[in-house]
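Dear Dr. L.,

I hope this message finds you well. Following up on our conversation about the binding site, I have prepared a predicted three-dimensional model of the protein together with phosphoric acid mono(formamide)ester. For your records, I am including the exact sequence and ligand specification that went into the calculation, followed by the C-alpha cells. Please feel free to forward this to your student if that is useful.
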Amino acid sequence: MKKDLLTVEELTREDIENILERTGILKEKQKKREPYCPLIGKTLGMFFEKASTRTRVSFEVGIYQLGGQAIFLTPQDMQIGRGESIEDTARVLSRYIDGLLVRTFSQKTVEDMARYTTIPVINGLTDTHHPCQILSDLFTIKEKKGRLDGLKLCYIGDGNNVANSLIEGAGKVGIGLSLACPDGYDPDGDIVKKAKATAGKGRTHMEILRDPLKAAEGADILYTDVWASMGQESEREKRLKAFRSYQINRGLVETAKPDVIVMHCLPAHRGEEITDEVIEGKHSIVLDQAENRLHTQKAIMEILMG
Ligand code: CP
Ligand code: NVA
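The resulting structure of the complex is given below.
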C-alpha cells in the first residue's frame, strides 16, 4: 500500500528515527559525491499554490541526485486552476508520476490529493502543517547536539504551521518544549491538547507561556518563524503590533544556555522575529538547517518512492 507524509503526527518514533538515519547516510554520500540513484526513471510532481525557495529547490535537486526527475506544477498552468476537480487531477496525475509533493493553503487539499491518488503524497507546507521542515530540523538538532532526548527547545512567536509540526515532532522524540506566543496566536488547540496529554504521560515537557524570557530560560535551542505567514499578508500591521516583544534578540539568547543554537526555518524578516545580529551571530545555525532540507527530502523520497 502507498504511504503518504501529511503530518508529523502520523509518524511513529521509529519512522522518525529511520528518516533521520537515512538522512545521515544520504548526506555522507552526497558530501563524498558518491552516486546513489535508487529512483532512476521516477518522477516527482510538485504542485505549489504558494511561493517557495528551500522546499522547491531541495526536492527538485534531491530527486535529480537520486536519479529521478521533477515536474513543477502550479494551479495557474493547470486545469485545476480553471475548475477541474482535485479528484480528477489526482487520479490523472497518478497515471504519469510516482510521487506528488503538495504546497497548499488548506490541509484538506493535501489530504484530498492523498485520498484520490494511488501514489505517495508529501505535504510541502499547508496553513497548518510543515512536516518536512520539522523532520529536517530534528536531524539538524541531533547533528548539532548529538541527541534529541531531554533537550529543551524554546519557540518564540506565532503558533503557526511550523509551530504545530514542531509540537508534534518534539513530543515524539523526547524534546521538551516551551512556546512563547502572544495571546490569540497560540498553536492549533487540538494539537496542543494532544501534546499536553502525551507530555503528561511521558518524560517530555510542553507549555505555552506569554513571557518570551521565561520560555527561553535554560533553552538548548531557540526557534522562531515569521510573524505573518503566506496568506496572512493583510494581517501584517496588526501582527507587527501583537508580536513586537516576541523577538529573538541578544537579551533572549543570553537567557538561554551558553551553547544554545538558534534556528529559523527561513525566510526570515530581520528586525522582526529575529535581529540581524543574532541570525548572523555565532549561535545561529540557519544555513546548516536550510542545507539539511536537501538531505532529509532525499530520505523521505527514498523511503516513500523507492
Ligand atoms: N522553510 C521553507 O519551507 O522555505 P521555503 O518557503 O522557501 O520553501
Ligand atoms: N510560517 C511560514 C513558513 C514558511 C516556510 C509560512 O507559512 O509562510
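In brief: The first helix runs from residue 13 to 31.

With kind regards,
A. P.
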